[in-house]
Specification:
The complex is a heterodimer of chains A (305) and B (392).
Chain A lengths: L1 H31 L6 H19 L2 H22 L9 H23 L15 E5 L2 E4 H23 L1 H11 L1 H6 L4 H23 L9 H16 L4 H29 L2 H26 L11
Antiparallel strand pairs in A: 1-2
Helix pairs in contact in A: 1-5, 1-6, 1-8, 1-9, 1-10, 2-3, 2-4, 2-8, 2-9, 3-8, 5-6, 9-10, 9-11, 10-11
Chain B lengths: L1 H24 L1 E7 L6 H17 L3 E2 L2 E9 L4 H13 L5 E4 L3 H13 L3 E4 L5 H4 L7 E3 L6 H12 L4 E7 L2 H13 L3 E8 L8 H9 L4 E4 L4 H12 L8 E4 L7 H4 L8 E3 L8 H13 L7 H19 L7 H9 L11 E2 L5 E12 L5 E13 L11
Parallel strand pairs in B: 1-3, 1-4, 4-5, 5-6, 7-8, 7-9, 9-10, 10-11
Antiparallel strand pairs in B: 2-3, 11-13, 12-13, 13-14
Helix pairs in contact in B: 2-11, 2-12, 3-4, 6-7, 12-13
The chains are: A mainly alpha (305), B alpha/beta (392).
Chain lengths: 305, 392
């Protein structure tokens, strides 16, 4: 039972982290109709900035804040210089151009920081486990990720549902042409949305950095999961991204945790140990396939027409 | 216009001449390793060490200049196979060296062996290679995968550990490693978890299970960057004070700068440690640090350094006549060179019979973390698959 509680927390933490990445991706895709494969690069840059600034300032929190600012600036610069020219073009052009950006960022990082990767050490108060229930210890840092990500999700919800900019963003997700026709400065809105997406990706990257390492190409595997999430949740829908990210995080973690033992009931131990990791990593994609068959527009689509 | 064509022709002729001259008069070596992505640091260390060995040999073997073609396998079996085929078929190399990953080597093996090109594995040691897939044309300057974790299992017995939880990646080497530790460890194995390789980097589910298993110890195998990530998460979960960790190929000179204090006091087994006191090793380590400032050689590099010397011994023995394959094979079987790990012998399957040491992480004289030999766990250890190899 306690094992289940701990594994659910693991799944929740992973899911919330995925949400931060998927939220930016779904906004950019849904509102700007831009397929941004380089979203994972912004995630990587957030981590590299944080590791660098944390080493300079000697403080994890200060380094993280500076990194968020740097990622915001980078996102805006990227939108203004490169991506702005891609709007209205074919999706294949987006894929080609943003794939080029992935290569660009990977090589740029190799030139600036070298191929070896960086470490982002945690302050000591975050690198200890806390007793959440009697006898159940959980890493403080993973709890911190859950808290921060939930707070960001709440802020996003309030921002999108209760403010004027949020209203424009929602309007943009439902019908892009119409809000342009109503005289909204769509260019500025796009830059803002892209910058916001970049910050969310950077936040995900820098929060993941102390758990993993800061390394070239760290955003590429996780980006695939983010795309799966926005497909399951419905493109352009923050609520969909949130629900789908939690689903995916839970399925992935609980699958890894309990599938081997379940399989051992029917298969011999060696075969089960080998098959389980492969099968559990497939579950997410099975869910996506199922959603695409049953509800191709996603579970919580943004534009209900 | 005429002048232009003439000069172009002259250029082409010169190129053709140069090409044929180098083909006949140089020793061509193909080197397959990972030079891109997060594990490129390993490939770079292997290349650095191989280049250093060539420097030490005067960049010649048996009086002939050496030409090395480096190819990136991207840590993918299909790419490794394709690069191996290219080296064998279009570059027509005399030797192929390298291979970090067991799954890459297994995919590439047939192309090299079918063409009777000598292949020297400078790291990967899948059990199949030591057993039924052994070949007269394949030599290893590393080990068979099971050997290092077997040594760790013996050490855990010495420490009186009664139960262990095993975690490793789900690929050829991961399965060998966990099988290896199980073959020597006398206590109870309370759990065995395999993770998706190389994409899974979050081990929270596995660590939670390890804690709940109430095992006395955890054994892991996570080479490269994954070793850094595993150790981070192990420490953050507070397990370092609860369940001691025993490792194979998880902490080395390449991962240590990122693992930092997390690695202090975590033991590992290895056939080479940077402080082994033989002369050849002292020269290797000192010159490496001179040639590549701020870098330290790892066991991957040491094995690559040995591979260059193994090839050199064969080329020298036949006086540079690379058509004498039987004589070269016979010479290599004698291990007629000074290895940086000290002396070793080859078994019938061309896998080293060698010592394994216990290594620990300590702060050295200049305050940097480094690896130190603590004890010899096992002497002249031969892999447990040599009986399956048809070569006698």
């Amino acid at each position: 039972m306690l094992l289940l509680v701990e594994q659910i927390l693991n799944g929740l933490q992973f899911g919330l982290l995925l949400f931060l990445l998927a939220a930016g991706l779904t906004l950019v895709f849904g509102i700007m109709d831009l397929v941004n494969l380089a979203h994972g690069s912004l995630y990587m840059m957030g981590a590299y900035f944080a590791a660098t600034f944390a080493a300079w300032t000697g403080s994890f929190l200060l380094g993280a804040l500076l990194a968020l600012g740097a990622t915001l600036v980078l996102g805006i610069v990227l939108e203004v210089t490169a991506l702005r020219h891609l709007y209205g073009r074919d999706h294949l052009d987006h894929v080609l151009a943003t794939f080029g950006l992935i290569l660009f960022f990977n090589e740029a990082v190799r030139l600036i920081w070298g191929p070896a990767g960086l470490a982002l050490p945690l302050p000591s108060w975050l690198s200890v486990p806390v007793e959440i229930l009697p006898g159940v210890y959980y890493p403080a840092y993973r709890l911190a990720i859950i808290v921060v990500a939930l707070a960001v999700a709440l802020l996003l919800y309030l921002g999108v549902m209760r403010t004027r900019i949020g209203m424009l963003i929602r309007a943009g997700a439902s019908n892009r042409e119409m809000i342009g026709a109503l005289g909204i400065n769509i260019k500025l809105l796009y830059t803002l949305v892209f910058g916001l997406g970049a910050v969310l990706a950077g936040l995900a990257g820098l929060m993941q950095a102390p758990i993993l390492t800061v390394q070239i190409g760290m955003g590429e595997n996780i980006l695939i999961l983010a795309f799966v999430i926005i497909v399951i949740g419905g493109i352009g829908s923050i609520r969909g991204a949130f629900m789908a990210a939690i689903f995916v995080g839970m399925i992935d973690t609980l699958g890894r945790a309990f599938l081997p033992d379940l399989l051992r009931q029917v298969l011999n131990s060696a075969a089960a140990s080998t098959a389980a990791p492969a099968l559990s990593s497939m579950l997410i994609y099975l869910l996506m396939a199922l959603v695409l068959v049953v509800r191709p527009e996603g579970l919580f689509p943004a534009n209900r027409r | 216009m005429v002048m232009r064509i003439a000069s172009w022709l002259a250029g082409a002729a010169a190129l053709a001449l140069a090409g044929s001259a180098s083909a006949a008069d140089s020793i061509k070596i193909g080197f397959v390793s990972t030079f891109s992505g997060p594990t490129a640091v390993i490939g770079n260390d292997m290349r650095n060490s191989f280049e250093l060995a060539l420097d030490h040999l005067g960049r010649k073997m048996g009086g002939k200049p050496v030409e090395v073609i480096y190819e990136d396998d991207q840590q993918k079996p299909d790419v490794g196979k394709q690069k191996t085929e290219k080296l064998v078929q279009s570059d027509k190399v005399d030797f192929i060296v390298g291979y970090i990953w067991s799954n890459v080597l297994l995919a590439s093996l047939k192309s090299a062996v079918d063409s009777k090109t000598f292949l020297i594995s400078a790291n990967a040691g899948p059990s199949q290679l030591a057993g039924e897939l052994c070949s007269p044309y394949v030599f290893s300057t590393s080990w068979q995968n099971d050997q290092t974790p077997q040594a760790m299992g013996l050490y855990m017995n010495q420490k009186g550990i009664k139960s262990v939880f095993l975690i490793g990646p789900n690929y050829a080497a991961g399965k060998d490693m966990l099988a290896g530790v199980k073959s020597t460890f006398k206590g109870q194995v309370l759990g065995e978890e395999y993770t998706v390789w190389p994409s899974q980097l979050d081990f929270s589910a596995e660590l939670t299970k390890a804690r709940n298993s109430k095992a006395e110890a955890i054994f892991v195998f996570y080479p490269g960057a994954a070793g850094v990530q595993f150790l981070n998460q192990y420490v953050q979960a507070g397990l370092k004070n609860q369940i001691p960790l025993y490792t194979a190929f998880t902490i080395d000179e390449l991962s240590l700068p990122l693992q930092k204090e997390n690695a202090l006091g975590v033991p590992g087994a290895q056939e080479w440690v940077n402080d082994l006191p033989n002369e050849q090793n002292k020269r290797f380590v000192a010159d490496y640090r001179k040639k590549y400032p701020n870098l330290r050689p790892s066991f991957y590099g040491a094995q690559s350094y040995d591979a260059a010397h193994l090839i050199n011994s064969a080329v020298v023995a036949v006086g540079g006549d690379l058509t004498k394959k039987d004589a070269m094979k016979a010479e290599m079987e004698k291990v007629n060179f000074k290895s940086v790990r000290g002396s070793f012998k080859y078994g019938n399957n061309h896998i080293p019979i060698q010592n394994f040491y216990l290594q620990d992480v300590v702060k050295d004289a200049d305050g940097q973390l480094s690896l130190k030999t603590v004890a010899t766990i096992v002497e002249n250890d031969q892999d447990r698959f040599h009986g399956k190899c048809p070569m006698k």
